[in-house]
Amino acid sequence: MAKTVVVTGGTDGIGAALVRALAERGDRAVVLGRNRERGARLVREGAGLVSFLETDLSLMSNTREAAKEIAATHPAIDGLVFCARFFQTHRTVTAEGLEHNFALFYLSRAVLGEGLAGVLGDHAVVINVAGPGHDTPIAWDDLQSTRHYDGVRAMFQAGRLNDLLGVDFAAKHPGIAYVLFHPGTTATGFAGDYDPATAAFIEQQKAQAKPATDVVPPLLALLDGPPRNSLSAFHLRTELTMRDDSADAARLARLTSSR
Ligand SMILES: NC(=O)c1ccc[n+]([C@@H]2O[C@H](COP(=O)([O-])OP(=O)(O)OC[C@H]3O[C@@H](n4cnc5c(N)ncnc54)[C@H](OP(=O)(O)O)[C@@H]3O)[C@@H](O)[C@H]2O)c1
């Protein structure tokens, strides 16, 4: 039976490659992103199977609205894949007063996952595409990098928060498989505001990296056969060993659940 999969950051990179592959095999995709032209192109290519919701997920008001709209129009979702991310060389604060990495890369994934949990069906899977297993320490008293901002560190810290988000979501919704997924270095849009030195480094990385289409088969395998465990972590097809993050996950949920 055809699946319905929601893909944030589905307008470019890994997300867009996944959306194209889903539509090619007859599945439906709901794409979330800001770029209207790229969204419209995917809708055209998708021949009735792809819909586009133009939204800036760095704002929690938009994220909540998107969750409501999708839940109202899609009573059963088989997959939710988080790919939206935006690198910031300099610290940026959203109109809602949140540091941008914290808002887009972590909090919107928490808010959208919770908002759609009720319509994720029996064999549904949530795939959080980030960088699981990184050992960046969490600055518990400075989750939004106010004291000292470094773009790479802020991104890695938000990545760690996503690991903890997976632990918390799996504890709250044990019937839904949650997968923390590392794609490895991949030539994508690398959306962001980069200083010249970082931009040059990214171009170097992209030149040596695999194409986004290489990440699609392991993602489709997870959507087609969700792992039995409520929480798992993969680097492409290789399963990663998880450390026990339950105390930190509960701590993070306590600190951020009112956001
Ligand atoms: N590429 C890699 O080497 C690599 C390595 C490790 C982990 N990852 C992870 O893989 C995931 C996908 O990365 P990628 O490299 O494929 O991404 P990408 O090509 O840079 O694309 C990022 C996506 O995020 C969307 N986006 C950015 N800001 C947004 C906002 N405010 N609201 C809504 N959507 C927004 C962009 O769409 P719009 O412009 O339309 O908003 C775009 O579709 C990310 O979570 C990243 O952490 C990637």
The end-to-end span amounts to 37 Å
Note the run of SSEs as H and E: EHEHEHEEHEHEEEHEHEEH
Q: What CATH architecture label applies?
A: 3-Layer(aba) Sandwich
- What shape does the CA trace take? globular
CATH superfamily: NAD(P)-binding Rossmann-like Domain
Q: What compounds sit in this structure?
A: NADP nicotinamide-adenine-dinucleotide phosphate
Number of helices: 8
Helix content: 40-55%
Number of E strands: 12
How many domains, in number, for the residues?
A: 1
Widest sheet, order of strands: 3-2-1-4-6-7-11-12
The CATH topology turns out to be Rossmann fold
As a whole number of angstroms, the C-alpha radius of gyration is 17 Å
Largest sheet: 8 strands, mixed
The low-confidence runs, each spanning 5 or more residues with pLDDT under 50, are: none
The chain-level mean pLDDT equals 96
Strand residue content: 15-25%
Q: Please identify the top-level CATH class.
A: Alpha Beta
Task: Find the structural class using helix and strand composition.
Answer: alpha/beta
